[in-house]
Amino acid sequence: MENPLLLFPQLNISASKDKPYYKLMKSAIKEESHKASKPGAKQKRKRLSLLLQKPDFHEGDHLGKPGNLTKAASVSPEEAVKWGESFDKLLSEKAGLDAFTKFLKTEFSEENIEFWIACEDYKKSKSAHEFLPKAKTIFETFIQKDAPKEVNLDFHTKEVTSQSMGQPLRSTFDAAQSTVYRLMEQDSYPRFLRSAPYLSLLQGRPPARAPLRRRSRSFTISDFQGVRPDLTVW
User: Fold this and answer.
1) Domains, the chain, ranges and CATH?
2) Where exactly are the transmembrane stretches of this chain (predicted)?
3) H helices present in 65-138, as ranges
4) pLDDT tier at 128, thresholds 50, 70, 90
Protein backbone atom coordinates (compact mmCIF):
# COMPACT_ATOMS: atom_id res chain seq x y z
CA MET A 1 0.00 0.00 0.00
CA GLU A 2 1.40 3.40 -0.93
CA ASN A 3 2.42 5.86 1.74
CA PRO A 4 -0.86 7.67 2.67
CA LEU A 5 1.07 10.87 3.40
CA LEU A 6 2.07 11.08 -0.25
CA LEU A 7 -1.42 10.21 -1.45
CA PHE A 8 -3.08 12.79 0.77
CA PRO A 9 -0.62 15.50 1.88
CA GLN A 10 -3.54 17.83 2.67
CA LEU A 11 -4.71 15.62 5.53
CA ASN A 12 -2.63 16.73 8.49
CA ILE A 13 -4.09 16.79 11.97
CA SER A 14 -3.60 20.50 12.59
CA ALA A 15 -5.57 21.39 9.48
CA SER A 16 -8.79 20.33 11.19
CA LYS A 17 -8.80 23.64 13.05
CA ASP A 18 -9.48 25.50 9.83
CA LYS A 19 -11.63 23.04 7.88
CA PRO A 20 -13.85 20.12 8.87
CA TYR A 21 -11.82 16.93 8.57
CA TYR A 22 -14.24 15.23 6.20
CA LYS A 23 -14.07 18.16 3.74
CA LEU A 24 -10.30 17.80 3.56
CA MET A 25 -10.68 14.09 2.84
CA LYS A 26 -13.37 14.70 0.22
CA SER A 27 -11.19 17.26 -1.54
CA ALA A 28 -8.20 14.93 -1.47
CA ILE A 29 -10.18 12.00 -2.91
CA LYS A 30 -11.47 14.18 -5.76
CA GLU A 31 -7.98 15.44 -6.56
CA GLU A 32 -6.50 11.94 -6.49
CA SER A 33 -9.22 10.63 -8.82
CA HIS A 34 -8.51 13.49 -11.25
CA LYS A 35 -4.80 12.68 -11.23
CA ALA A 36 -5.47 9.01 -11.82
CA SER A 37 -7.40 9.81 -15.00
CA LYS A 38 -4.43 11.53 -16.63
CA PRO A 39 -2.30 9.60 -19.17
CA GLY A 40 0.65 7.90 -17.54
CA ALA A 41 -0.75 8.21 -14.01
CA LYS A 42 -0.84 4.45 -13.53
CA GLN A 43 2.80 4.09 -14.56
CA LYS A 44 3.85 6.93 -12.25
CA ARG A 45 2.02 5.38 -9.31
CA LYS A 46 3.69 2.03 -10.01
CA ARG A 47 7.14 3.65 -10.04
CA LEU A 48 6.30 5.48 -6.81
CA SER A 49 5.23 2.22 -5.19
CA LEU A 50 8.57 0.62 -6.08
CA LEU A 51 10.41 3.64 -4.74
CA LEU A 52 8.56 3.49 -1.43
CA GLN A 53 9.85 -0.05 -0.91
CA LYS A 54 13.41 1.23 -0.62
CA PRO A 55 14.39 1.39 3.07
CA ASP A 56 16.26 4.69 2.66
CA PHE A 57 13.37 6.51 0.98
CA HIS A 58 11.53 7.37 4.20
CA GLU A 59 14.60 8.42 6.16
CA GLY A 60 13.63 11.75 7.69
CA ASP A 61 10.84 12.14 5.12
CA HIS A 62 7.84 13.02 7.25
CA LEU A 63 9.47 13.44 10.63
CA GLY A 64 10.68 16.98 10.13
CA LYS A 65 13.72 17.75 12.23
CA PRO A 66 15.45 14.86 14.07
CA GLY A 67 13.70 14.00 17.30
CA ASN A 68 10.52 15.86 16.39
CA LEU A 69 8.12 13.65 18.33
CA THR A 70 6.75 16.75 19.98
CA LYS A 71 8.10 20.07 21.18
CA ALA A 72 10.03 19.18 24.30
CA ALA A 73 9.78 22.72 25.66
CA SER A 74 5.99 22.53 25.73
CA VAL A 75 5.75 19.12 27.43
CA SER A 76 6.85 18.70 31.03
CA PRO A 77 7.90 15.34 32.47
CA GLU A 78 4.83 15.50 34.72
CA GLU A 79 2.55 15.85 31.69
CA ALA A 80 4.33 13.04 29.86
CA VAL A 81 3.86 10.78 32.90
CA LYS A 82 0.08 11.27 32.63
CA TRP A 83 0.17 9.95 29.06
CA GLY A 84 1.27 6.61 30.47
CA GLU A 85 -1.71 6.35 32.81
CA SER A 86 -4.08 5.27 30.06
CA PHE A 87 -4.51 5.40 26.30
CA ASP A 88 -7.63 7.53 26.76
CA LYS A 89 -5.61 10.04 28.79
CA LEU A 90 -3.02 10.27 26.01
CA LEU A 91 -5.63 10.97 23.33
CA SER A 92 -7.56 13.44 25.47
CA GLU A 93 -4.64 15.90 25.53
CA LYS A 94 -3.66 17.73 22.35
CA ALA A 95 0.08 17.42 22.94
CA GLY A 96 -0.33 13.70 23.62
CA LEU A 97 -2.46 13.17 20.53
CA ASP A 98 0.08 15.05 18.39
CA ALA A 99 2.98 13.05 19.83
CA PHE A 100 1.21 9.73 19.29
CA THR A 101 0.29 10.72 15.72
CA LYS A 102 3.92 11.53 14.93
CA PHE A 103 4.94 8.18 16.44
CA LEU A 104 2.46 6.30 14.23
CA LYS A 105 3.93 8.07 11.21
CA THR A 106 7.29 6.49 12.00
CA GLU A 107 5.51 3.12 11.80
CA PHE A 108 3.51 4.04 8.69
CA SER A 109 0.22 3.32 10.45
CA GLU A 110 -1.14 6.84 10.93
CA GLU A 111 -4.36 5.90 9.12
CA ASN A 112 -5.58 4.39 12.41
CA ILE A 113 -5.43 7.62 14.39
CA GLU A 114 -6.70 9.64 11.42
CA PHE A 115 -9.74 7.36 11.20
CA TRP A 116 -10.34 7.72 14.94
CA ILE A 117 -10.15 11.53 14.67
CA ALA A 118 -12.50 11.51 11.66
CA CYS A 119 -15.03 9.48 13.66
CA GLU A 120 -14.80 11.91 16.58
CA ASP A 121 -15.49 14.78 14.16
CA TYR A 122 -18.39 12.85 12.62
CA LYS A 123 -20.09 12.35 15.99
CA LYS A 124 -19.93 16.10 16.63
CA SER A 125 -22.12 16.86 13.60
CA LYS A 126 -24.76 19.39 14.59
CA SER A 127 -27.54 18.22 12.29
CA ALA A 128 -28.71 14.97 10.69
CA HIS A 129 -28.21 16.25 7.13
CA GLU A 130 -24.44 16.39 7.78
CA PHE A 131 -24.23 12.65 8.42
CA LEU A 132 -24.58 11.41 4.84
CA PRO A 133 -21.76 13.40 3.16
CA LYS A 134 -19.42 12.90 6.12
CA ALA A 135 -20.20 9.18 6.38
CA LYS A 136 -19.64 8.71 2.64
CA THR A 137 -16.26 10.41 2.79
CA ILE A 138 -15.10 8.43 5.83
CA PHE A 139 -16.27 5.15 4.29
CA GLU A 140 -14.53 5.82 0.97
CA THR A 141 -11.32 6.97 2.65
CA PHE A 142 -10.89 4.38 5.39
CA ILE A 143 -13.26 1.41 5.09
CA GLN A 144 -14.23 0.32 1.60
CA LYS A 145 -12.03 -2.23 -0.16
CA ASP A 146 -8.80 -0.69 -1.46
CA ALA A 147 -9.59 2.63 0.23
CA PRO A 148 -6.57 4.98 0.11
CA LYS A 149 -6.20 4.81 3.91
CA GLU A 150 -7.93 1.51 4.58
CA VAL A 151 -7.93 0.46 8.24
CA ASN A 152 -7.88 -3.17 9.33
CA LEU A 153 -11.41 -4.26 10.26
CA ASP A 154 -12.90 -7.72 10.59
CA PHE A 155 -15.49 -8.77 8.01
CA HIS A 156 -18.47 -8.49 10.37
CA THR A 157 -17.65 -4.94 11.47
CA LYS A 158 -17.03 -3.82 7.92
CA GLU A 159 -20.29 -5.41 6.75
CA VAL A 160 -22.38 -3.82 9.51
CA THR A 161 -20.86 -0.41 8.77
CA SER A 162 -21.45 -0.81 5.05
CA GLN A 163 -25.12 -1.71 5.54
CA SER A 164 -25.78 1.47 7.51
CA MET A 165 -24.39 3.77 4.83
CA GLY A 166 -27.78 4.19 3.15
CA GLN A 167 -29.11 6.05 6.18
CA PRO A 168 -26.16 6.80 8.45
CA LEU A 169 -26.70 7.61 12.11
CA ARG A 170 -24.48 9.17 14.75
CA SER A 171 -23.53 5.64 15.82
CA THR A 172 -22.71 4.37 12.31
CA PHE A 173 -18.94 4.13 12.89
CA ASP A 174 -19.00 3.24 16.60
CA ALA A 175 -18.12 -0.44 16.11
CA ALA A 176 -15.34 0.30 13.61
CA GLN A 177 -13.93 3.10 15.74
CA SER A 178 -13.91 0.87 18.83
CA THR A 179 -12.08 -1.86 16.93
CA VAL A 180 -9.37 0.51 15.70
CA TYR A 181 -9.12 2.08 19.16
CA ARG A 182 -8.47 -1.33 20.76
CA LEU A 183 -5.86 -2.21 18.14
CA MET A 184 -3.96 1.01 18.81
CA GLU A 185 -4.34 0.61 22.59
CA GLN A 186 -3.02 -2.95 22.62
CA ASP A 187 -0.41 -2.70 19.87
CA SER A 188 0.91 0.80 19.11
CA TYR A 189 0.38 2.43 22.52
CA PRO A 190 2.68 0.06 24.49
CA ARG A 191 5.41 0.59 21.88
CA PHE A 192 4.93 4.35 22.13
CA LEU A 193 5.45 4.14 25.91
CA ARG A 194 8.68 2.19 25.36
CA SER A 195 9.96 4.45 22.59
CA ALA A 196 13.13 6.50 23.08
CA PRO A 197 11.42 9.86 22.38
CA TYR A 198 8.76 9.25 25.03
CA LEU A 199 11.29 8.05 27.61
CA SER A 200 13.34 11.17 26.92
CA LEU A 201 10.29 13.34 27.65
CA LEU A 202 9.82 11.55 30.97
CA GLN A 203 13.38 12.48 31.94
CA GLY A 204 13.04 16.08 30.78
CA ARG A 205 15.44 15.71 27.87
CA PRO A 206 14.89 16.72 24.24
CA PRO A 207 13.15 13.75 22.60
CA ALA A 208 15.42 11.28 20.87
CA ARG A 209 14.68 10.32 17.30
CA ALA A 210 12.28 7.45 16.94
CA PRO A 211 13.60 4.57 14.80
CA LEU A 212 11.70 3.94 11.59
CA ARG A 213 9.80 0.65 11.48
CA ARG A 214 9.02 -1.25 8.33
CA ARG A 215 5.39 -2.33 8.36
CA SER A 216 5.43 -6.10 8.15
CA ARG A 217 1.72 -6.78 8.38
CA SER A 218 -1.50 -5.37 9.74
CA PHE A 219 -2.77 -6.66 13.06
CA THR A 220 -6.33 -7.69 13.78
CA ILE A 221 -8.13 -7.67 17.08
CA SER A 222 -7.87 -11.46 17.26
CA ASP A 223 -4.10 -11.12 17.62
CA PHE A 224 -4.58 -9.60 21.05
CA GLN A 225 -7.47 -11.57 22.52
CA GLY A 226 -6.55 -12.76 25.99
CA VAL A 227 -3.29 -10.80 25.98
CA ARG A 228 -2.66 -8.04 28.49
CA PRO A 229 -0.32 -5.33 27.15
CA ASP A 230 2.86 -4.48 29.01
CA LEU A 231 2.51 -0.77 29.82
CA THR A 232 5.75 -0.56 31.83
CA VAL A 233 7.73 2.51 30.77
CA TRP A 234 10.83 2.09 32.92
Assistant:
1) 77-203 (1.10.167.10)
2) none
3) 77-83, 87-92, 94-106, 111-123, 131-138
4) confident
